Amino acid sequence: MVEKSKIELQELRKAMEQELSSKRYLHTLGVSYTAACLAMAHGADMDSAMTAGLLHDCAKPLKGEEQIALCEKNHLEISDVERLNPSALLHAKVGAYLAETRYGVTVPDILNAIRYHTTGRPQMSKLEKILYIADYIEPGRKHVADLEQIRQMAYQNLDTTMAKILENTLAYLKTTDGQIDSMTEETYEYYKKGSSLRH
Ligand code: DGI
Ligand code: FE
Ligand code: FE
Asked: How does pLDDT run across 101-125, given as a tens digit for each residue?
């Protein structure tokens, strides 16, 4: 007999294959399996990691204005920076909403992992960190600075890896005209302190 959770994962994979562009679908599979590997390495629930990975970008096909409209219709709060950068930032919040309402996810930790996968937040759960990191290091990710080192770190220490990814993301964002969400900065400050205490 095939386990129920395996059937659910199979159905989510099929749904994402239909909903996402082939490029985004490949990224999604990469994140899902990378999250599973990190769950193995760090002792987290593998099926939750794969579910979060499969659904994390499920709102990406919606245009910025569609995401804003969906939030307004369903009384989800939108910050000013999210309103100005909906495609980069709002898809995480909308994704968590769709994971719950359309794809039937009820586990709060999975929904929070999706919700915070772009900015992170201070005091993240193990699953939240796993999804955030898997999104950055999955095999199909285009090369960014220090990626080999970050991929190795990810299997050793989730907190120092968070600090390193956030440092590089903030440095990258400062070279673009994308506005920085205060949550991204708060998350960096939190993990930077944690990792300097340990070294
Ligand atoms: O959806 P993905 O492309 O797989 O990855 P993601 O959800 O982690 O991030 C989407 C983009 O958002 C990525 O280029 C990094 C960027 N980002 C992260 N924090 C911030 C941000 N963009 C803005 N404008 N502000 C932030 O604070
Ligand atoms: Fe994303
Ligand atoms: Fe992603």
From this structure: 999 999 999 999 999 999 999 999 9
Quote the CA–CA distance of 105 and 102 in Å, as a whole number. 8
Which residue stretches of the chain are H helix?
Answer: 4-19, 22-42, 46-55, 64-73, 80-84, 91-101, 108-115, 126-137, 147-154, 158-174, 182-197
**CA pair distance 105, 38, nearest whole angstrom:** 21
List the one residue out of 95, 8, 98, 18 whose CA is nearest residue 56.
Answer: 95
Q: Would you give the DSSP letter of residue 161? A: H
Cα 43 to ligand 3 centre (Å): 22
Distance CA 194, CA 163 (A): 8
Provide the pLDDT for residue 197. Answer: 58
Q: Rounded to the nearest whole angstrom, what is the distance from the C-alpha of residue 26 to the centroid of ligand 1?
A: 18
